[in-house]
Amino acid sequence: MAHIVAAPCVDCKYTDCVEVCPVNCFYEVDNMLVIHPDECIDCTACVPVCPVEAIFTESDLPEKWNSYIALNKEKCNGAPNITAKKDPLAKNNPDKCKGGA
Ligand code: SF4
Ligand code: F3S
Question: How far apart are CA 82 and CA 16, in angstroms?
Fold first, then answer.
């Protein structure tokens, strides 16, 4: 099992999650972050820090976002690792990303 970044991250990308991950398993694609399923140790540290509640354990993932399991696995390959917080895309999407500043 692993944790999954799902739809609420898309176009928001707050990046608070990367700062708490003990194994640095977040990877960055254009419009969101993804978690490497073979590297995540299911510590759950990232779940409460995401302002838009985009991160789930595989077993808690809402069914409508099931496709994100494969998406995280596929997109992390070749994507750059991200370990430091940066400006969110959310500032350009204030109506969509209501969870945080
Ligand atoms: Fe990292 Fe833990 Fe979140 Fe997995 S559950 S991505 S190991 S912080
Ligand atoms: Fe995305 Fe939430 Fe991290 S919006 S970048 S999963 S803090």
Answer: 11
Read off the tokens for 45: 């540290």
Tokens of 49: 């820090």
Span 38-82, pLDDT tens digits: 999 999 999 999 999 999 999 999 999 999 999 999 999 999 999
Q: Which atom of ligand 1 is nearest to the CA of 41?
A: 7
34 CB near ligand 1 (under 6 Å)? no
45 within ligand 1 shell (Cβ under 6 A): yes
- DSSP string covering 6-67: -GGGTTT---HHHHH-TT--EEEETTEEEE-TTT-----TTTTT-TT--EEEGGGS-GGGTH
- 26 has which bridge partners? 35
Best residue among 30, 33, 68 to mutate for probing ligand 2's pocket (most ligand atoms within 8 Å of CB) is 33
Q: For position 99, what pLDDT does the model report?
A: 64
pLDDT recorded at residue 19: 98
